[in-house]
Backbone:
């Protein structure tokens, strides 16, 4: 058995609201190897960000992790004391959030915010920590003289690179990136992806959250597809792109435009279900053209064909070939 840096085992996360219990992540299991790039793909509201935030224990009320294990480097993160976990977060696990304006302190200079990582985890004096902050700023493509700037004085792309600088300052084993290219133009988006790729080449594992399957396919080693709180397909990127087994994955691929040739873009009919009362059987069946009585009645289990796993009753049949 290969060694895994991260193992998510039977994770269940629920939100207890006045209108009902939302099953945001429902018995999900995933594994990530050292130095691997795994992308989690799905529509908004499918549970991918909730799963990622569970790893760093950022699920706050009314949300609650009600079951499962999250094993990082051989230790269950969910059973650590707060003090133990704080030693790991920022040092061994870095996080890049979707909107850097919500993760950066608007009242503090960016150099101070990066330096805090070195001061907190390595016990550096402020002068030495600021020097290291300047070095990591240059590493992410921002001139050192910007070290005294406030977040609002930077562009969106620069702010995102500052957020990445904070996350990778101590060369973490795992970097979680939650839609870090959202709202950025395609040139800046590509720069950010190149930057993440450079850290992967140095041995950092990447857990990349995105709704853009085409973007994920460009860089990933493996892709996991989530729908309505469930993992519906997972495997090597070439398997997912060239031979998608789940109708939902097929629909995501068909909705991606092709700039290099003629292609009919098809949308997925309908909308994701209300996770307070998901449909019985396969949760995708109300939107699936292949659904039959079994799909409406019986929930599919995740089956694996080598490294390629899928939760679909009809997977592998000629009926649903991509």
Residues:
């Amino acid at each position: 058995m290969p060694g895994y840096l991260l193992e998510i085992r039977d994770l269940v996360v629920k939100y207890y609201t006045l209108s009902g219990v939302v099953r945001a992540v429902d018995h999900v299991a995933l594994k990530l190897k050292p130095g691997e790039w795994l992308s989690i793909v799905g529509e908004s509201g499918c549970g991918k960000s909730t799963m990622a935030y569970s790893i760093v224990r950022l699920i706050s009320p009314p949300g609650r992790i009600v079951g499962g294990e999250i094993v990082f480097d051989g230790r269950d993160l969910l059973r650590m004391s707060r003090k133990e976990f704080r030693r790991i977060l920022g040092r061994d696990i870095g996080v890049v959030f979707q909107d850097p304006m919500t993760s950066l302190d608007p009242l503090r200079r960016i150099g101070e915010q990066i330096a805090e990582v070195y001061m907190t985890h390595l016990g550096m004096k402020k002068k030495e920590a600021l020097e290291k902050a300047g070095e990591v700023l240059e590493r992410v493509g921002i001139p050192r003289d910007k070290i005294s700037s406030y977040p609002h004085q930077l562009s969106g792309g620069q702010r995102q690179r500052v957020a990445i600088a904070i996350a990778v300052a101590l060369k973490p084993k795992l970097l979680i990136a939650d839609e870090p290219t959202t709202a950025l133009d395609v040139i800046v988006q590509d720069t950010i992806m190149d930057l993440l790729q450079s850290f992967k080449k140095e041995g950092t594992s990447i857990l990349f959250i995105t709704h853009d399957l085409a973007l994920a396919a460009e860089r990933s080693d493996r892709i996991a597809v989530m729908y309505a709180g469930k993992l519906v397909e997972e495997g090597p990127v070439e398997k997912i792109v060239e031979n998608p087994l789940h109708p939902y994955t097929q629909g995501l691929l068909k909705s991606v435009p092709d700039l290099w040739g003629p292609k009919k873009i098809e949308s997925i009919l309908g909308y994701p279900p209300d996770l307070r009362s998901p449909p019985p059987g396969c949760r995708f069946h109300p939107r699936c053209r292949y659904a039959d009585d079994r799909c409406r009645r019986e929930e599919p289990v995740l089956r694996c064909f080598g490294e390629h796993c899928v939760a679909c009753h009809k997977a592998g049949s000629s009926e649903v070939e991509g």
Notes: The longest strand covers residues 20-32. The two ends are 31 Å apart (CA to CA). The chain has a mean pLDDT of 93.
